Amino acid sequence: MRSSVLILALLATGCNTRPAQETAATAPAAPTTPNAPLRETHWVLRQVAGKPISVPANTREPYLTLRADGTAEGNGSCNRFRGSFFSENESELKFSPLMSTRMSCPAIDTENAFTGALAKANSYEISGDTLRVLDASGAAVARLEAVYLK
Fold first, then answer.
1. What is the pTM of this model?
2. Which residues in the chain land under pLDDT 50?
C-alpha cells in the first residue's frame, strides 16, 4: 500500500504545470521590425515641428535621401534640394546649407519648415521605419518614414 501511495504522489506532482510568470518569461518575444538604414533609404516627411504634414494636390510628397557618399538630396514639395550631411559619430546628423531651386507652390510653408528643421539637425534616432531628426536640445524637429520603392 505504501508503494502505491508513493506512486500516486509522484504522479500528482509530475503533472503540475509551470507557474504563469515562468511561462511568460520564457515565451519568445514578438518579432520587431529591424531599423531601416540611415543611408540609401527614401525617407518621406510625416511631421515637422510636431505637426503632421498634408500635401496639397498637384505637389510632391516631401522626402530626403542620404547617400553613402555624404550627399543629401530630396524634395521639399515644391523644389528639389541638395547638399551634404555629416554623421561621423553614432546618432550624429548635421547638414551643410542646402541648395535648392526657388519655385513657389501651395506647399511652400511645409517646404520651408522641412528645410528649416534639417538646418537645425544635430542628431537622429531610428526605430523600425521611423527616423526622428533631433535638434541640439534633443527635441524632434522632423519625423520621417522609410518608404521602399519598387
1. 0.76
2. 2-24
